[in-house]
Amino acid sequence: MNLRRILLASMTALIFTPLHAQQASWKIGALYPLTGSLALLGTENLNGAKIAVDMINEQGGIAGNKIELVTGDASTPDKAQSEAERLSSLENLKVITGTYSSGLSFAASQVVERRGGIYWETGGISDGLTKRGFKNYFRVVFTASQNGQLAAGLAKDVIAKSLKKDVKDIKIMVIHEDSDYGTSVATAAETRAKELGFAIAAKTAYKATSTDLSPLILRMKAEAPNIVIASSYATDALLIQRQMKQLGVNVDAFIGTGGIYGLASFAEGLGSAVNGIFDTEGSANINTSALSKDAAKQLEDFKKRFQSAHGKPPSYVGTQGFVGTYVLLDNVLRKAGSLDPEKVRLAAVALDIPDGGTALGWGVKFAGESDPMRGQNIRSYPVAQQWQNGKLVVVSPDKTKTTDAILMPLPAWDKR
Q: CA 174 to CA 77: how far, in whole Å?
């Protein structure tokens, strides 16, 4: 009788135990800069990733397992490396995602590759990340070269036409923070601009941690470019705009290439002066006719969740964290059925999502072993956006744009 009671009690406890309490957990590392100068961007990326995890867990998880993110603060390359060591060795995690910044991704992924784990990059765009021949490194987003080339193409196809000038009569100045990210984007922009026939006034580097960029801005004033293409992060991007205003430096057009240029905080920092500024990166606001029905529905759901959780719409940075993480969970780990690195790698290599199949409009197909860009998503691409009436809208390419660009030139600072 006692045995019967014990069995009945055990069965009752099992029946009435919540599903989430019965589930085992799959832990995945999540490395982002959560403190320091990149905290705004890293946190935005992570917030998107968390929503992907929530959505997957609400669907029952994967293979009966609830997904958990184990976060690490990769605020500097040294910390990225040490946190990657901690997550790989002490936490014994086989799959790590992140990292937003190319420099941080370089440092952390070397550790994970050496230990035989999977590194899944959702944000860093430096070309060199996928030129190392790593077996277990996969990047979902486009490259720095693609972004720089788009900025130069935007200058020709949209801005030059708006100014009603021939490209040979237009001077471009390229400015960039001096990490591998900024240098890669700037070099690609300069190279492509030269190919298109633009005159290059200068290509000038600076440190993103600078608190005074007046020497750079004064050089800009002396060069008097028609168009500035800038690769920046957060505080440096705002500082450039403020010191341009202080020193009375006006240009016909200004193109940012990611970083804070696509965040609401950039518009908040500039007020109405933000209108007319361009930004090249991905976008959460592309024309949904470019998406599959499932991807469009997923984007709508994500936007609602992000708005509810954070009181603001998601930027591209948040959306790339969401899309990259969702693809990892739903398309790769679900197929692998395991966190075993080799099974995950094979599932990633076999991934074949057509164009329009993700909420950012991209497909996903990774360059193979013989490709010099091994592990790069060859179906990802950036889009061109512009701040109009305080909102960021997509103006190019045609398949994803939602409106036309505002005509240039930008008004002088005292008219903005």
A: 26
